[in-house]
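STRUCTURE:
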């Protein structure tokens, strides 16, 4: 069975004056902005100029009424054909100027738990919002980023739109949003055209690119999760939790770190009372014993299996 990958697609192509008039007659919700017209073809936003057309929308929603499941390379020709039929245009030679690659995964745990074990990306800034995780977050909505990765709770998004959620299922969505410079990002000799989206070889190269961006994210072996934070009832306890986390990280890299610290403290006679050396050791042991950190190896393995193998 082919993998699902295609969601939002942006297309652009030149048109004649006759085609401009024909398309304008077929759009709904038409508005005029200076020399251009803006309207809709089902869920697609369409912008018409005298010498060209630009349209963007979810091909999955266009074909099936929802983008819970994205399209395969076998399904997308039907979506492009039907959209072209509505507009009276042959869209297969249109240039693809933006492309969202996405899949929805059924997970064993709440999607937010997985976000904690996804660390930094080598080229994109990491930014968290409630129920979502972004790489390449834009603070200015007018700014278009060439590339953005997004992980979010799909059920929460479905609910926010007033639709019925998928009961008794955790749904994690991973999207790779390519909003401009597709030819450069995909290292191609020529621009991407709509007919390329159905090609199996091209589809597989997009799938590998989608997977490689996930692989580029550093996976965190230990993290402070919600369960840990709920154990802290005071600022002092939260500070203790953070200290314990830092100790765990350091001990992973240097297992003898605490023993070396005890030796140094004693050799320099830091404390006036000898009992303090014992208390120092007990203090660290208490910290490390009090907070049992999540070890998200199973979560990482599950994500790896779903994104890379499923």
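SEQUENCE:
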């Amino acid at each position: 069975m082919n993998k699902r990958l295609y969601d939002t697609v942006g297309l652009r192509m030149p048109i004649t004056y006759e085609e401009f008039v024909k398309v304008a007659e077929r759009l709904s919700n038409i508005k005029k902005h200076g020399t251009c017209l803006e309207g809709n073809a089902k869920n697609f936003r369409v912008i018409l100029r005298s010498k060209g057309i630009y349209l963007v929308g979810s091909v999955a929603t266009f074909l099936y009424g929802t983008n819970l499941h994205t399209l395969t390379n076998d399904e997308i020709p039907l979506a492009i054909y039907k959209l072209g039929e509505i507009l009276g245009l042959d869209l297969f030679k249109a240039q693809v100027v933006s492309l969202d690659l996405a899949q929805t995964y059924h997970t064993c745990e709440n999607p937010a738990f997985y976000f904690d074990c996804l660390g930094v990306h080598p080229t994109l800034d990491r930014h968290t919002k409630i129920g979502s995780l972004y790489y390449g977050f834009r603070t200015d909505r007018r700014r278009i980023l060439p590339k953005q990765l997004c992980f979010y709770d799909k059920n929460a998004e479905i609910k926010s739109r007033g639709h019925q959620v998928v009961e008794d299922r955790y749904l994690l969505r991973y999207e790779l949003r390519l909003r401009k410079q597709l030819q450069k990002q995909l290292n191609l000799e020529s621009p991407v055209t709509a007919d390329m989206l159905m090609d199996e070889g091209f589809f597989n190269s997009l799938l590998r690119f989608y997977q490689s961006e996930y692989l580029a994210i550093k996976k965190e072996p230990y993290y402070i999760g919600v369960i840990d934070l709920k154990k802290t009832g005071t600022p002092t306890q939260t500070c203790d939790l953070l200290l314990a986390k830092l100790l765990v990280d350091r001990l992973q890299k240097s297992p003898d770190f605490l023993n070396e610290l005890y030796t140094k403290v004693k050799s320099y006679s830091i404390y006036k009372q000898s009992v303090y050396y014992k208390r120092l050791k007990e203090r660290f042991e208490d910290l490390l014993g009090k907070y049992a950190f999540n070890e998200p190896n199973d979560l990482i393995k599950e994500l790896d299996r779903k994104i890379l193998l499923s």
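REMARK: The first strand starts at residue 6 and ends at 14.
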